[in-house]
Specification:
It is a single chain. This protein is mainly beta. The chain folds into 3 domains: 70 residues, Immunoglobulin-like (Sandwich), CATH 2.60.40; 92 residues, Immunoglobulin-like, CATH 2.60.40; 33 residues, no CATH class. Helices cover 0% and strands 55% of the residues. It is built from no helices and 20 strands. The strands form 6 sheets. Strands 9, 12, 13, 16, 17 and 20 form a 6-stranded mixed β-sheet that branches. The chain has a 4-stranded antiparallel β-sheet with strand order 3-2-6-7, with no helix packed on it. A hairpin with a 4-residue loop joins strand 14 and strand 15. It is flat, with a radius of gyration of 25 Å. InterPro entries: Ig-like_dom (IPR007110), Ig-like_dom_sf (IPR036179), Ig-like_fold (IPR013783), Ig_I-set (IPR013098), Ig_sub (IPR003599), Ig_sub2 (IPR003598). This is Ig-like domain-containing protein.
């Protein structure tokens, strides 16, 4: 299989009850959220996009139901053209970018990576690997990390890490999340000096709050 091409492995079966299908690469289960990896909802098709030598290995499809289990193995070997290696780089990778987002809004972080062979991209938050999910989505093989609906817990340090046979590079973001609190004040009377008094009848005050990794700060 040539480097930079797509590869798909599929299984066809009919049995009752419907089996649960899992895919493994070199003994490690693939969830379908890894960069460049897609698995159809029923599990019968595994797709690997933009292959690199890092995808070499044994792939196993395992199907299990109440009647038992069976498996099928694939041996994948990546062939690639003899091109000069170019270490991976990221646009603006030497700088830590500070970004802000409002609660419940969407935000997209960029990781514009280049290199030969094409590097693999992974995202990390506060040192922990981020898997593509409904809340944090890998777009364009990880060159974009999209959070459709920002939450207070999303504040923190995000790092885009790219790796290939030619080396590695990374870029960091510091994400601050802001929101608005609505405070209701009712039946509050204020007595001011110089015999001046004021009465407030259910006014509304809006405060902007900044959420950090530790605690909210107003």
């Amino acid at each position: 299989m040539l480097h930079h091409h797509f590869y798909s492995a599929s299984v066809s079966m009919f049995c009752l009850p419907q089996p649960v299908i899992k895919w493994f690469r070199n003994g490690q289960q693939l969830m379908g959220g890894e960069p460049g990896v897609s698995i159809l909802e029923d599990g019968t098709l595994l797709i690997l996009a933009s292959l690199s030598p890092l995808d070499n290995g044994e792939y196993t499809c395992m199907a299990t139901n109440d009647a038992g289990s069976t498996q099928k193995k694939y041996q994948l070997r990546i062939l690639y053209l003899s091109l000069p290696l170019v270490p991976p780089s990221i646009k603006g990778g030497n700088l830590t970018s500070e970004v802000t987002a409002l609660l419940s809004n969407a935000i997209t972080l960029k990781c514009e990576a280049r290199g030969v062979p094409l590097p693999t991209i992974t995202w990390h938050k506060d040192g922990e690997v981020i898997l593509s999910s409904r809340h944090t989505q890998y777009v364009e093989r990880g060159q974009l990390l999209r959070i459709p609906r920002v939450q207070a817990s999303d504040a923190g340090r995000y790092t885009c890490k790219v790796t290939s046979l030619a080396g590695a590079a990374e870029k960091a973001y510091e994400l601050d999340v802001y929101g608005e609190r609505v405070l209701n004040i009712s039946a509050l009377s204020l007595s001011l000096s110089l015999s001046l008094s004021a009465s407030l009848s259910s006014p509304i005050s809006i405060l902007r709050t900044r959420f950090t990794r530790s605690s909210p700060a107003i």
